[in-house]
Every structure is written in structure tokens, then in C-alpha cells.
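stage 2 :: seqdesign
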């Protein structure tokens, strides 16, 4: 039974990473060809995804859709999660604007270290040598994938670095903070309302009726994919996986996201594969394999 839970946790974390990576390709299309701005995607996507998730949950028989409003504690926890999700995405976009996507993506590999730091402080335990190796493999792998081994390509900026670290800290926070309320209320009510709250806050600064974007069949299809797969499925998988694995392991597996985006960019945009990029992909895959083996051995 324990090994089944480990396998389920790893599968959910991989599902989240792959869904986020695939969403990046669809978002790239909207941003480059359909006059979308980053804040447009952040605001309307979160509200749309939250409503859709709660509708699906209710149709499938969920009877506690309004459970986050059952107590002040529950609502506060869900609201904090929603604002944290919104903040992580906005600061990530600000990091890209101040520096570039490569630096912002590399800084995401700091998330497992932040989660590990939290657990070290709480549990007074240091990560195992295998997990430390995974930190190195994940960070090196993502860095090689996004730079092709040429770090001079990075547009280094102190402001971009600070925004990127802030985004990573917020991601680490929403990996840990909502775990108690999720265990009490379930993933769907918590994630759905967190998305709606975060999206509504964003809409206060970026009203949907003021958007000047190009809606056509392709943009509608891309946006639908972003909402359903890149947001609903990915966040549900991510926050479900922390029921079976620690936030450290989940965020390490999450390093598959840029690898997924890179592989899909090869398929859809004809991007070529370099030696360093291939090596980076192997590093990230090795990271996931080590986590799988170590988790299995620990449970056994």
C-alpha cells in the first residue's frame, strides 16, 4: 500500500510538471501572436480554472463545494493560498521582464532548497545525500536546458534576480502552507476557491472587459488548453501529490517542467537539440529516477 502511494505521488508530481510545461507552449503562442499580456493570462485563467474545477467537482458528486467558507480558519487558509499562487505567477513574470525567461526558470530550481530549509528548521533533520545529489542534478539540468551550456546568454539583473527569488519563495510557500486545509477539506474545494480568489484580486487591477486581445479559433483552443490542462489539471496534480510525498520531492520532480516545454518546443517550433541541452535533460530524468528509487526504498 505504501509503495502504491509513493508511485501515485510521483505520477501526480510528474503530471503537474508535464502539464505546466505544455501550458508554456500554448502561452507562448498567445503572448507572441494574439496580443495577450502576461497579466491577462494570470487573471482570467485563474478565475476560469477555479470555476471550472468546482463545477467538475460538483458534477462528479462533491457536496462540500462551499466548505472553505465553513470557518474563518478555513477561509483564511484558502485565501492565503490564492494570493500566494497569484503572487508567485506575477513575480515570475516580473522576473522575466526585468531579466529573461532563462534566469527566471533557473531560479525555480531554488524551490526545493527553500522547502528543504523549512523542513530542516521544523524537523531538525538535514536532507539525505541522495536528495542533495538530486538538488545538484535538477539545478544543473535545468540550467543546461535553458542556456545550452552558454551562461553568457543569461541577461543577469539584480532586480530580475530578486523577483525570481521572491517567486520561488512564494511557490515554496504554496507547496507547504495549504497542506493542513487540503487534508481537512480536500483538494478540489481548496484549489478551486484559491484560484478564484487569486484571479479576482488580479482582475481588480486588470479587468477582463478591458482586454485587447485577438480571439479566434486558435487562440480560443490555446486558452482552453491553458485553463483545463495547464491550470486545473496541473494545480490539482501538484497539490494532490504533496499528500503522498514531501514538498521537497514534489518540487524536485517539478524540474521536469522546463524539460517538457523544451521537448514540446522541438516538436512544435522546430527547435534543434544541442549536446548540453541533451545532457541537461538526462540530468533531470536522473533526478526523477533517484527520487523514485529512494522513495520506494524508504517506504519498504
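stage 2 :: out
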Amino acid at each position: 500500500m505504501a509503495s502504491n502511494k509513493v508511485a501515485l505521488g510521483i505520477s501526480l508530481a510528474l503530471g503537474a510538471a508535464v502539464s505546466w510545461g505544455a501550458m508554456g507552449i500554448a502561452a507562448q503562442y498567445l503572448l507572441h501572436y494574439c496580443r495577450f499580456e502576461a497579466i491577462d493570462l494570470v487573471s482570467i485563467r485563474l478565475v476560469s480554472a477555479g470555476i471550472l474545477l468546482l463545477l467538475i467537482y460538483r458534477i462528479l458528486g462533491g457536496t462540500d463545494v462551499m466548505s472553505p467558507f465553513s470557518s474563518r480558519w478555513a477561509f483564511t487558509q484558502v485565501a492565503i493560498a490564492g494570493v500566494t499562487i497569484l503572487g508567485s505567477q506575477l513575480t515570475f513574470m516580473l522576473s522575466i521582464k526585468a531579466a529573461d525567461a532563462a534566469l527566471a526558470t533557473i531560479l525555480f530550481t531554488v524551490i526545493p532548497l527553500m522547502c528543504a530549509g523549512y523542513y530542516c528548521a521544523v524537523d531538525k533533520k538535514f536532507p539525505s545525500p541522495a536528495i542533495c545529489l538530486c538538488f545538484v542534478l535538477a539545478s544543473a539540468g535545468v540550467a543546461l536546458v535553458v542556456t545550452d551550456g552558454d551562461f553568457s546568454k543569461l541577461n543577469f539583473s539584480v532586480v530580475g534576480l530578486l523577483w525570481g527569488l521572491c517567486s520561488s519563495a512564494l511557490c515554496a510557500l504554496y507547496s507547504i502552507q495549504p497542506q493542513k486545509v487540503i487534508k481537512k477539506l480536500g483538494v478540489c474545494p481548496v484549489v478551486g476557491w484559491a484560484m478564484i480568489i487569486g484571479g479576482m484580486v488580479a482582475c481588480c487591477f486588470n479587468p477582463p472587459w478591458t482586454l485587447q486581445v485577438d480571439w479566434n479559433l486558435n487562440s480560443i483552443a490555446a486558452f482552453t488548453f491553458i485553463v483545463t490542462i495547464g491550470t486545473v489539471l496541473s494545480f490539482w496534480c501538484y497539490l494532490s501529490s504533496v499528500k503522498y510525498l514531501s514538498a521537497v520531492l514534489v518540487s524536485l520532480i517539478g524540474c521536469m517542467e522546463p524539460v517538457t516545454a523544451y521537448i514540446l518546443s522541438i516538436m512544435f517550433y522546430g527547435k534543434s537539440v544541442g549536446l548540453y541541452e541533451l545532457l541537461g535533460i538526462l540530468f533531470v530524468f536522473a533526478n526523477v529516477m533517484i527520487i523514485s528509487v529512494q522513495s520506494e526504498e524508504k517506504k519498504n
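stage 3 :: structure notes
- Residues 77 and 178 are 6 Å apart (CA to CA).
- Residues 2-299 form one domain.
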